[in-house]
């Protein structure tokens, strides 16, 4: 059977995943995933909505046509990949959700110096992260990460990814869960970037770790892996976004690196 390419097709409400990369959640899922090329996955809760098989679309929920964004998601399958590569998703939905949370996006941007990050319409498979989940990045960042990791390995340094691309819906979910636990938006913002303002949304940032060290902890600073990154990551286009005392008021994140085009 034709193997689907390792790409993630991204739309506002739904992601299209290569079926081969998804874990089955039931025996029905397993049978379908084995035959499917793509799976429509609802972004806000990860629910599998439909499988795209050679013979057509197989619904995995009772009222598929009522799911917001299904037509758009299916239409994306027919869009040329090169066109998707250049597209970013609209931000109207995010702006509305931020307003519902009582979060003034303009003021937050001014206070933090962070900017709204649109989601790319297309992401490339960049291997697996420490937790064996597929790691998604924009194409140049995915290629740079593979080269960086190989370069490090040749010099005896093991690097692994903790997390790459994350959707607006994922970050909104973090906020909603914390609000439900009684935290205020202001309290959450001391630890989490506002939804839409994380560099992870753009597909160029990733959190890097080394086996044996806790993920996304300041202790990473003391590892040989971090020393190696400081010396060599720049040559591969990766830069530390939040050094100590950064102007964004974000805690020091020695693990968070972002790829930028040369001269950009
Ligand atoms: Zn990060």
**Percent of sequence in beta strands:** 15-25%
- What oligomeric state is this? single chain
Based on CA atoms alone, the radius of gyration comes out at: 19 Å
CATH class of the largest domain: Alpha Beta
Structural class: alpha+beta
Please tell me the overall pLDDT. 93
Strand order of the largest sheet: 5-4-3-2-1-6-7
Walk me through this protein's architecture:
With 264 residues, the chain is α+β, with helices and mostly antiparallel strands. The chain folds into two domains: 7-78, no CATH class; 98-259, 2-Layer Sandwich (Muramoyl-pentapeptide Carboxypeptidase, domain 2), CATH 3.30.1380. Helix content is 31%, strand content 19%. It has nine helices and eleven strands. It has helices at residues 27-35, 70-76, 81-85, 92-100, 105-112, 139-154, 168-180, 185-189, 224-232; strands at residues 7-10, 14-18, 38-42, 48-53, 56-59, 122-128, 134-137, 160-163, 205-209, 238-240, 256-259. The protein has a seven-stranded antiparallel sheet with strand order 5-4-3-2-1-6-7, sandwiched between helices. It has a four-stranded antiparallel sheet with strand order 8-9-11-10. Strand 6 (122-128) and strand 7 (134-137) form a beta hairpin. The protein starts with 6 loop residues before the first strand and ends in a 5-residue tail after the last strand. The structure holds zinc ion. Zinc ion (ZN) binds next to strand 9. Zinc ion binds next to strand 9.
